[in-house]
Write a structure and sequence with these properties.
Elements (H helix, E strand, L loop, with lengths): L2 H26 L5 E3 L5 E3 H14 L6 E3 L7 H4 L4 E9 L1 H6 L5 E8 L2 E9 L4 E6 L3 E5 L10 H7 L1 E2 L8 E6 L5 H14 L2 E6 L3 H8 L4 E4 L5 H13 L3 E4 L18 E4 L1
Parallel strand pairs: 3-4, 10-11
Antiparallel strand pairs: 1-2, 4-5, 5-6, 6-7, 7-8, 8-9, 12-14, 13-14
Helix pairs in contact: 1-2, 7-8
Length: about 270
Amino acid sequence: MEREKLLELLEKTCTISVEAGKEILKVYDTDFDVEHKEDKSPLTIADQLSNAKIEEGLKDTPYPILSEEGKDIAFDERSNWAYFWMVDPLDGTKEFIKRNGEFTVNIALVNEEKAILGVIYVPVKDTIYFGAKGVGSYKLEKFSTYLGSSIQNWLSESNRLPFQYERPYTFVGSRSHMSKETEDYMNERKNDKGEIDIISVGSSLKLCMVAEGRADEYPRFAPTMEWDTAAGQAIVESMGGTVISWSTKNQMKYNKENLLNDWFLVRS
């Protein structure tokens, strides 16, 4: 896909993510009711409102949408998709319930098993991370104030990722889902790196920490789904980092028959 087309789609999806974020924030400061999915994780009305806003915004594109809400679409149908949107309308539902602000809206464009465009919006902070293949990756704060201007303006007002930080070798881990295997890996790496730091955040912000330059590695040796990581992977790879499947040691792929991710390692 040509760079100009990717920029056009980035502008569209960034704008949609803010609209979805507004729907989430309408619920965030209320005494919202919590439903439960079959796996017993919390699901709020904010998730449903955000998903509806994203679907409405993307319906005039030629690409189908895959998200948890559409996970039952048959693989025979999905396998014929050259391009499709991978959406997580509210990533970090546990963080939402805890009211710590560490939840995001994730939209990715996938082409032939590869995430080539990604947008991650943080509604509480009004901060957006976005990137695409051949375009680079960027972070822009107070993003809603830039709506109405073009993506060329956003690029000129943003700083390209990664930023440079003076810090020890740093790992980022899950706020709510740190597994023993992940902790063991970090402890093993201490032998190689000496002084290390570990930061914990929720949702896809962990991939953003690597893309931004705040962390060197994000090991995830615990279950995730494809919609949890696609947008973040596009942003990490567009800034020059890698997201590697732990079993294959190759780039993590999307639109598999089983939408469960392998364990993976993100590096800057």
